[in-house]
Amino acid sequence: MPPLNETMSASLAQFNKLSARQAEGELLKCCGSQNWAHAMSASRPFLRVAELLEAADKVWWSLGEEDWLEAFRAHPKIGEKKAAAAQTEQAQTWSAQEQIGTQDASVNTMAALAAANKAYEERFGFIFIVCATGKSAAEMLTMLQARLANDRATELRAAAEEQWKITRLRLEKLLSQ
User: Fold this and answer.
1) What span, in angstroms and rounded, lies between the C-alpha atoms of 171 and 94?
2) What's the CA gap between 88 and 92, in Å, rounded?
3) What would the pLDDT profile of 37-56 be if each residue is shown by its tens digit?
């Protein structure tokens, strides 16, 4: 099996050859913001994976609140399987893998997560976003509860940072397929 960076380079070359529409479809698996996917597709070709990741970061942080909220809606709530917005099969699979830490959680922890998710959404107007990869349900619950103390502007920025972490991990997965 070739080293990951060689695989990524081959995948990057294939990604660069996609039509704009196809590229946007692949990018939307990584981040649910239409404007982000469009800007990234239009930024091609990328010569190196690092260049793509740098562009992805720059584009993400140039977007506005509505774009961020659109991206958030492409995720299921922590502990749930279905997002508010339509997800591709690949994005659903990645979400399930990312939230694997909730699989063995106790009924009490899952009930607490559901209650905290509801309180969070009522307080901020969007779902709790966390890069769940490698985190247990209890860890995510602790993070959610701590972030409930934030003001909306601080929390929007925190959620955007978590979304960026998710996007970066998914871009790496996309390019290593």
Assistant:
1) 11
2) 6
3) 999 999 999 999 999 999 99
For 53-89, the pLDDT digits (tens) are 999 999 999 999 999 999 999 988 887 666 555 666 7
Round to whole Å and give the CA distance between 72 and 56.
Answer: 16
User: What are the extents of the domains in the chain?
Assistant: 4-68, 77-171
Tell me how far apart the 2 most distant CA atoms of the chain are, in Å: 49
CB 73 within 8 A of CB 85: yes
Please say if 75 is a catalytic residue.
Answer: yes
CATH pick for 77-171 out of 1.10.3330.10, 2.30.30.30, 3.40.190.10, 3.40.50.410: 1.10.3330.10
- Active-site hit among 32, 60, 69, 75: 75
Q: H or E element: which one contains 119?
A: helix 107-124
